Amino acid sequence: MTRQRLSLLTPLALLGLLMGLADLGSAGEDEDYYMQELLTREQHNQVQVPEKPVASTPDRREHPTKKVPKGKAGNGRQTGKSTADAKPVKKGNKKAEKSALKTPNSISEGDGQYNSIKEECPPMGLETVKIDDFQLHASTTKRYGLGAHRGRLNIQAGLYEDDLYDGAWCAGRDDPLQWFEVDARRLTKFTGVITQGRSSLWSSDWVTSYKVMVSNDSHTWITLKNGSEDLIFTGNREKEIPVRNIFPAPVVGRYIRVNPLSWFQSGSICMRVEILGCPMPDPNNYYHRRNEVITTDDLDFRHHSYKEMRQLMKVVNDMCPNITRIYNIGKSHSGLKLYAIEISDNPGEHEVGEPEFRYTAGSHGNEVLGRELLLLLMQFMCLEYLSGNQRIRRLVEETRIHLLPSINPDGYEKAFEMGSELSGWSLGRWNGDGIDIHHNFPDLNSILWEGEAKKWIPRKMFNHHVPIPQWYLSRNASVAVETRALIAWMEKMPFVLGGNIQGGELVVTFPYDKTRSQGVAREQTPTPDDHVFRWLAFSYASTHRLMTTVNQRVCHTEDFAKEDGTINGASWHTAAGSMNDFSFLHTNCFELSMFVGCDKFPHESELPEEWENNRESLLVFMEQVHRGIKGVVRDLQGRGIANAIISVEGISHDIRTASDGDYWRLLNPGEYSVRVKAEGYSLMSKKCAVGYEMGATRCNFIIRRTNLSRIKEIMGKFNKQPIRLPVRQLQVRRSGERRLGR
Predict the structure, then answer these.
(1) What is the pLDDT of residues 100-142, one digit of tens each?
(2) Which residues, other chains included, contact 458 with Cβ-Cβ below 8 Å and sequence gap of 6+?
(3) Distance in angstroms (rounded) separating the CA atoms of residues 454 and 556
(4) Please, where in the chain does CATH 3.40.630.10 lie?
(5) For residues 581 and 606, what is the distance between their CA atoms, to the nearest angstrom?
(6) Architecture of domain 133-282 in CATH?
(7) CATH code 3.90.1150.10 for 306-626
(8) DSSP single-letter state for residue 279
(9) Alpha carbon of 296 to those of 301, 313, 724: distances in Å?
(10) pTM for the complete prediction?
(11) Rounded to an integer, what distance in angstroms lies between the CA atom of residue 661 and that of residue 635?
(12) What's 629-718's CATH class?
């Protein structure tokens, strides 16, 4: 099959592009080539398809396979004639179509032959937004918010209807002449289609059967055949569960169309789509070269089951036994251990003055990219440490790092069983007991804010280390076993900074996650450390390959790039009892959430690129644990004082020293008045300056006992009884008093 070079855009083509952008999709069927002037090529050889493929079987896992009978498409409806009698989509060149059908029963590519055997390529990238909006076209659209650019698998709608961000492509007319088109911008071997209905709280719309057509020039279209008849694919039975149809044999072309034939009888033609396709070799294709991301890291880029994850962690531990340790923090609802790996130059022990950092992932089991990123990170750090990478060696030697890749292994196994494209938007999100782990922590915000309103701080309660209410600790409370394990882990380790990796968006969120005003769904609710949190969030987002890119397409409904890829959690959507808020209010740890991709469960082939997107961000964020001040609080004898309160003037949030008296306080550059107080010791304060260079400023304190505490200590030794001196000491004391005239 010959290939032609991409022709240059002419001024006329650019004018056509602007006209196409102005057209919001109300064009008639004769205007279905409105984007043809964009990126035109010389006409390729006609697309080749198998002469007699067998009928395709849909793969929806949840539902049994059912072929749509001739003349009747499921429980759908259509306007005018039945499906069997419906007119086919208008063809542009009958002679060329007839010629194209006279092909062998196989498709050739170079020296190879594609026979009538089902093959499956990875997703082209509608869900991951690798396919941009200009590559998606449709016959008609109901309105801009339901345009072709919204016809992406798993895209989510806004809370309200009729806005710019609805949850599917919906045709402007309900008839079997409508179509949804993808321009691959290069010859592509298409192997299948995945469909969903419309994401909506208020509407029920989905397509129950459809045909597929391919083209090389968007004028001449060839319909996939079942013998001499058009091949009809079974669509969806409801709007959320994805349905996959693999073609009987691959077809090669540049354009592919999905042509709905029937739809839910109480709804309209609405679809969310993913196309399975492999790009054909074409070194002259500019768009492929521009978007191509290649990693040089030799890592295990694949999805891992629970057993495979455990084995991989063991391999890393065997490769780097001197800097790694595997342990578990508890068990899941079904009894799977929650494994973590520690990376440090002295694994297994806390070193005085060395901060502790954590990454967690998989609190929502279906958001699996974070899990794989942490597995890749532990491999990368081990290999780079062994190769002498000074940056990694410095991190390992100066930080105690904990990586917990799977908080919710039960949910992950459900999603993993279905696969990356068929798990949908929510399967596996909750744990085995149906609980959302990330939002299962006690609501300490309300307790703190009530104390502030009643002016109890600092007389009756502290502005930090807010205690967990007793009702939450009871056995009957709706608390996941995974949540209890996390809380015990967070209380045991003196974590300073943490990040929990999630999916489904491209943004970094920081506390508070709950709005302060009751009944308000979205409201800016900053913490006293808002400036520090904003810097921490920006440190990750700004070094991510996509988060702050101004031309990055919106994943669903929010354009976070306008805020530099970061947002206060409560100003996005309120959520009580989040892991981030709990960590900040109950421990010393500043916790943020990293949403690292539009696709919660990307295909395995996407993992190398996702690693490149996030690798630098993962390292930079870890290094922020060394920003601010650090030190040790000791008494006159040099003993570390645990539980001493570290206060910074002007910031109404304190932290406490660890068991050895060491502390770490994250701060932005500047000069601060820092005060230390501990029960039984005198108050002490000093000025501490934080510079712009990386590395925390050392700020140690030596405090002395108060007279009152020394008296109490002495009386405690005698069980609070009057101190009885020996007779000899008493006589000496009385004689001394007589000499002094007493």
Answers:
(1) 333 333 332 333 333 445 678 999 999 999 999 999 999 999 9
(2) none
(3) 41
(4) 306-626
(5) 32
(6) Sandwich (2.60)
(7) no
(8) E
(9) 12, 21, 79
(10) 0.81
(11) 10
(12) mainly beta
